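#onboarding

Welcome to the new folks! Below is a worked example of what a typical request in this channel looks like: someone posts a single protein sequence, and someone else replies with the predicted structure as tokens. Don't worry about understanding the tokens yet, we'll cover that in week two.

Example request:
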Amino acid sequence: MRGFKRLPGELFSLSYGAIPGRKMPGFACVVSAKAIARASARNTVKRRCRAVFRRIVDTRHPLVYVYYAKKAAQSAPFGEVERDVRALYARVHSPLA
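Example response:
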């Protein structure tokens, strides 16, 4: 994704950027089989990531956010997933990002 920036987190890495002409924010959660082997565990991580993102998304920022799960996300409880996803999202919209 050319022109996108990448931020590392504890459980996820976030790639974000603008797509010309896009009016609403976009979102994806990528969990590779290399990072988490079992499909049921990959789906759980995706569901948790999506649930947090729906709570925090701000429609005033029409960026595309792509979260890439790390191996540690598999065993992390929901609270840690929420903390990491929120922290990465906040870093994007902080003045220093």
